[in-house]
Amino acid sequence: MSESIPDKEVIEKAHTLITPYIHRTPILTSQFINQLSGAELFFKCENFQKIGAFKARGGLNAVLSLSEEQLKNGVTTHSSGNHAQAISFAAAKVGAKAYIVMPDNSAKVKVQGVESYGAQITFCPNTPEDRQNAVDKIVEKTGAAFVHPFNNYAVIAGQGTAAKELIEDAGVKLDVIIAPVGGGGLLSGTSLSAHYFSPGTEVFAGEPEGAADAILSFKSGKVEKAPFVKTIADGLLTPLGPKNLEIIRKHVKDILTVSDEEIIAAMRLMWERMKIVVEPSGAVVLAAVLKNKEIFQGKKIGVIISGGNVDLGKLPF
Which of 133, 269, 291, 313 has its CA 20 to 30 A from that of 124? Predict the structure, then answer.
């Protein structure tokens, strides 16, 4: 595993490595949403990705980068769902065992996804400490290779391939790319790709008010905890990783917070107007654009929809 911030060649290599296993997801536009926002939006639809989320990219790059020796005892991770599915999916592709730690309140649809790839799940209370303790026990017992969900350069390089494709496929020079932020894997990868493949394109993030640690960390320069954690965007609950924060502080313009009401309204708008299934974490970015129209007025904006794994029995509208 690389121990330095991914350079341009590392992201290109990651893209080549994972391309046989992923979808090159489409870019959609909506005239109605363009009029509403006063900007031109290009939606990179990672809700159509394998496993239903961008995390397939980072998970595959990390697992495919491991040696046979490292893979022989399997792989392990902790995740509320999308990274869990990514590692399970990637492990299945290389014929390795996957040991996944999931919070006991994980969305049912995400648990079923992990099970469908043949992974072995261990449930734990939903705190960062409990997650890590459970993984440490698995590593001790099995010797499995641990792939951190976001504080891992191979994962970051893999996540950066979504923005690389967006830059290549948008058909215009993007003024801005905006991505959601939880642990920071997607945002740090996105900001590196913008820096390398589209100099001059600014990168913003959307973050839920109910898990607003990234904005605090962004300002203070050290990993902070959110003052409170309560949001519908279950994929964005984790605090930033140190590796992610270093990249984000260097290459991200700003982090914009949105309320759950704004997230739900944006999610509903995409379901109704674009006819696509988007999970709350994926709707955070549109919510941030609509809330901050003055920042984005008249600009060409790449919007990364992170995923579409929604429990259809628990829709917020």
Answer: 313
Instruction: Tell which of 114, 146, 178 closes a domain.
Output: 146
Kindly report, residue by residue over 283-312, the tens digit of the pLDDT. Answer: 999 999 999 999 999 999 999 999 998 888
Question: One-letter amino acid identity for 135?
Answer: V
DSSP symbol at 184? S
On whether residue 125 sits in a domain, the answer given is yes
pLDDT beyond 90 at 150 = yes
Predicted TM-score of the model (pTM): 0.96
CB 292 within 8 Å of CB 218: no
Q: What's the domain count of the chain?
A: 2
- The token duo for 78 is 């902790």
Predicted local confidence at residue 182, as pLDDT: 94
For every residue of 30-70, which 3-state class applies, written as one string? CHHHHHHHCCEEEEEEHHHCHHHECHHHHHHHHHHCCCHHH
What residues contact 171, with CB distance under 8 A and at least 6 apart? none
